[in-house]
Write a structure and sequence with these properties.
The complex is a heterodimer. Chain A is of the alpha/beta class. Chain A is built from 7 helices and 7 strands; from the N terminus they run βαβαβαβαβαβαβα. A 7-stranded parallel β-sheet of chain A has the order 3-2-4-1-5-6-7, with helices on both faces. Chain A is globular, with a radius of gyration of 16 Å. Chain B is of the alpha+beta class. Chain B has one domain: Hypothetical Protein Yjia, Chain: A,domain 2. Chain B is built from 2 helices and 5 strands. In chain B, strands 1-5-2-3-4 form a 5-stranded antiparallel β-sheet. In chain B, α1 runs antiparallel to α2. Chain B is elongated and about 40 Å long. Classes of the chains: A alpha/beta, B alpha+beta.
Chain lengths: 195, 122
């Protein structure tokens, strides 16, 4: 099975985009499993995704890049044993460092064919968030294979240029896509690329 | 606050409530009450030292009338709703996660209880 790690700060639109990705790939007859990690003691996104008839495993009350790392490996093993998906999409908490998740998952490497990290960035809040939590955002962007700049319908062209330029400086190797997962802007071309 | 990930950690409050309305309420009215509740909560969080809203998100679900997801990510923008809920409701389940920076869990809990009592208590 392949693994797609979806990272990005709280409220950047991970669950909304994940739903679009899962629907697209399921329609292409791929077997998808989702792992939802939430830092709250009560999960919400898993319940929402279950309503969309997706196969979801939940891990709450901590972050898989540190406190719940063992739980993540056990969950991956369980999914492989009982469901055997083509792709596992792992939605990290908004405060997770995907590089640390990758280190933890690498312990499981023999059963995972490939691992990709996709980091979402909230175009509307990017500049403000960089002032408050720059180390976390930087770590999330630097670890990504693909950075998706989301909520582009909420910003001016100039702001979007500034955001994408900042991302290019932080991670020149990453592929950058600009979308609005909610409105659907550029979503088809992004999903075509991802497929 | 620094967590195991070695960065500033948010405070997290989660709650699940069963809402029972004394008389049936329309889905539109319920959304309006949720909107007021979220507006009150974010304003009081800011007044009490909250520096940053990470994410306030929740789900209101019913057995057969649909569901509403809500999300707040900023002090300056309105709550965002998605999903569909129709008809009039006697009962619903509310699940909410409040993840914010600059205030502690007890403060969130107290402010949440006040906002809940003002707008959603039945």
């Amino acid at each position: 099975m392949k693994l797609l790690i979806m990272a990005g700060f709280l409220g950047s639109g991970k669950t909304t985009l994940l739903l679009q990705i899962a629907k697209r790939l399921s329609a292409a007859s791929l077997k998808i499993a989702i792992i939802e990690n939430e830092i709250g003691d009560i999960g919400i996104d898993g319940d929402y995704l279950n309503r969309e008839e997706l196969h979801v495993q939940e891990l709450f009350g901590g972050c898989i890049c540190c406190t719940l790392s063992t739980g993540l490996i056990e969950t991956l093993e369980k999914i492989e044993l009982h469901y055997q998906p083509d792709l596992v999409i792992l939605e990290a908490t908004g405060v997770a460092r995907p590089g640390d998740i990758l280190t933890n998952v690498n312990k499981y490497q023999p059963k995972v064919e490939s691992i990709k990290i996709l980091t979402l960035v909230d175009a509307f809040r990017f500049e403000m968030l960089m002032e408050v939590i720059e180390p976390l955002l930087t770590a999330q962007i630097e670890a990504a294979h693909t950075v998706v700049v989301n909520k582009i319908d909420q910003v001016q062209e100039k702001t979007l240029e500034h955001v994408t330029h900042s991302i290019e400086c932080l991670n020149p190797e990453a592929k950058i896509s600009t979308v609005s997962a909610e409105v659907g802007t550029n979503l088809n071309s992004f999903l075509d690329d991802l497929s | 606050m620094i967590n195991n990930c070695n960065h500033i950690a948010p405070a997290v409050f989660a709650d699940k409530e069963h809402l029972t309305f004394s008389s049936p309420i329309s889905a539109i009215k319920l959304q309006a009450r949720l909107d007021t509740f979220l507006d009150d909560l974010t304003k009081s969080l800011k007044r009490n030292g909250c520096l940053l809203i990470g994410h306030i998100k929740g789900l209101v679900s019913t057995r057969d009338k649909g569901h509403l997801m809500f999300s707040v990510t900023s002090f300056t923008t309105d709550a965002h709703f998605k999903g569909t809920m129709a008809g009039s409701l006697k009962q619903a389940e509310l699940t909410i996660n409040v993840i914010v920076y600059g205030v502690d869990n007890n403060t969130i809990q107290n402010l949440y209880r006040e906002a809940f009592a003002a707008s959603l208590k039945c």
